[in-house]
Amino acid sequence: MRFERSHTRRAVALTAVGSLVLLVSACGGGDDGSSGSGSGSSGGALEGRGPITFATGKDTSGNLTNQVAAWNSQHPEEKVTVSELPESADQQRAQMIQNAQIKSDAFSVLNLDVVWTAEFAANRWVTQLPEDQFPDLGKLLPSTVDTAKYRDKLYAVPVTSDGGLLYYRKDLLDKAGVQPPKTWAEMKAACDKVKALPEAKSMSCYAGQYEKYEGLTVNFSEAVNGAGGVVVGDDGKPNVDTPEALEGLNFLVNGFKTGEIPKAAITYQEEPGRRAFQEGSLIFHRNWPYVYALASKTDGSSKIAGKFAVAPLPGLKGPGVSTLGGHNYAISEFAKNKATAADFIKFMSSEERQKANIEKTSQAPTWASLYEDATLNKQFPYLAPLKASIETAKSRPKVVKYGDVTTAIQEAAYGALSGTTPPKDALSQLQTKLSTLITQ
Amino acid sequence: MSTSAPVAERPAKPENNKPRRQTSFNEGTGRLAAMLLSPTLIVLVLVVVYPILSALRESLYQSGQRVDADGFIVQGSEFVGLDNFAAIFQGETADRFWNAFYNTTFFTVTCVVLETLLGVAMALVMHKAFKGRGIVRASILVPWAIPTVVSALLWKWIFQADGIANAILGTQVLWSTEGWQSVLSVIIADTWKTAPFIGLLVLAGLQTIPDEVYEAAKVDGANPWQTFTRITLPLVKPALLVAVLFRILDTLRIFDLPFVLVGPNKSSVETLSILAYLEANQTRYGPAAAYATLLFVYVALVAYMFVKVLGADVIGEARAKTPKNNKKSGGRRDNKLEPGAAAGAATGSVTAGGGGV
User: Fold this and answer.
1) Ranges of each domain in chain B
2) Class of the CATH-defined domain B59-67+76-356
3) pLDDT band at B308 (very low <50, low <70, confident <90, very high)
4) CB–CB of B329/B226 below 8 Å?
5) Non-local CB neighbours of B213 within 8 Å, separated by 6+ positions
6) Which CATH class is domain A165-322+401-437?
7) Is B99 on the interface with A (CB under 8 A)?
8) What residues of chain B lie within 8 A of the CB of A276, using their CB?
């Protein structure tokens, strides 16, 4: 009995010690990983060659493997491993931030949404890039390069872009004998004419994305910019409590009031809006280029295949202003082999790679001359309006606390659109709020 | 339990042998028990106590909120005392906090009441012997088996502007907009998902009630309602209380349903967990930890009150009865264990809530 008990006790002690050792070693492992990279934060100098990791959101296009394979076959000593993050932008950002906060070198090249540049740069999570090492920058669309800068310094290289387009029912507009509109007033007039047609009676005129999320910030900014206003001025100061901004906001508010924008549009993100357009219940629809391929499908999922076309967004007195989307590639401050990382970014943003990418995925390139390519234009008829859209597009505010800024914008816009706040009050409240958030 | 003498008698039988064996065990068992428990305790300290303390510490600090002249964030965190807590109760943030507090409480009360009613009804149905009972049991449990986020997406799809709910109702309710409709959608989805949980636990309770009790009631001429209120409910109460306690603690932490189904920044359905998440998402970990701590205190308080008020009742009932029935064996401990177990479960859930957020 006595022997047995002490035996048991020893076993228990062993188990306890064993579990502790396991735990400690697990923690120790984490420490090793983070402290090892502490020395790599010299900044600026892009040195070191070897294998790197590319952290990017889930690749829904399926083409990223080809792009990376093209690099890997040419650079067997500097292989790139793709680290796929979740599909949701919020979670991508969260994982990249967590990684940066423990100074881990697990991610070398980061695929950043254009609105994250300021936050990542200000926190020194990404390395400042010497512009002379990226000679091709001049061949990219200038508006896209601008999104990669923070306080006039380059922190990333734009690889894909995105701009809003006006999708319209070409069949109905032709039948009613109207041209695609350049202004909001023309769009309204076109709607009235189209709605006089018997088959368009129950249709709504227009919709974008008005659910309370990033898409609302995009659509609100487009309305304000399209009327000649700004949310945040070029000097970096918020200036949204203006008559121009009010006219822009009123375009949306009145749209909801008169029913030109369907009531359900207050719940639209990209996908519900696209479905409504594909179901044939919208005459005009603001969305991103990705819709083109889906709405053209002839497998029965789209009722409007071959019946629609795209144009640049309309504005108050002339062509509208799109909000700029897209992704930039940056180098993590804590990465090893930064020279390889820089080369990889140059490779991915090169004309050849961007062309290969748009051919497969229809993602908007940043390389300006690709928009003039005759074969591409044949394959993607929206390229010309898209170039016009991106060239004049405005960035969303470049602020460190972008998350707070976009929340404030959504709050104000949503209140005005759902009719709980008068537009004028919404804008003046937004101005106050932004002034406290943006102190530069 | 006091109504049923036979119930109390049955477990009393084997106890006659018990005391003798116990004394022989006593020497050294305490130490052995401590040894055996130590791995568990170490793990608990690491995964429960440490996160709580660390969150408490975090709530007293702030970092990354200032930008220097060159546009870079000033590194390092600074001790700010209770500033993070004070900020929650000032100005606009206070309105938002109390709104979230109200929503959390409202969801908890409404959902738990509905779920209890439905869950008990489900358990009664599942307990009855009839053809196809297996299928009914399985189908009732399906919602519980679905992860909350998935069920939130499912309901989001149902509640879309062009979704099934509107098609069936023949209306154009915009469920995800601010107002009663979004609150209702969350309540419906939560009740749908978790009423089976209560049903499951109550069913387990029902199955421990011996048939003789019901036969006796029948002989005495009790009608179904009397049988339900005088026999079923009192006997199933311990199981039901644990189930309700679990649900209360769970619902106080409600996050995924409103966040996914309706969306963030919607004041109608914003809860305390969402506030903590949003702060953390903006890399303001100090204020986030402060919100999480407040939620932790709230959950702990509710759990304590619940166990104190309803759990004490259980003890009282058990004590009043035990001397009468089990005088010889010096009172059974089993009855006392129930509230204890409930309290233990409560702390477990609470800490999970505090640590998880």
Assistant:
1) 59-67+76-356
2) mainly alpha
3) confident
4) no
5) B3, B4, B6, B7, B231, B235
6) alpha beta
7) no
8) 162
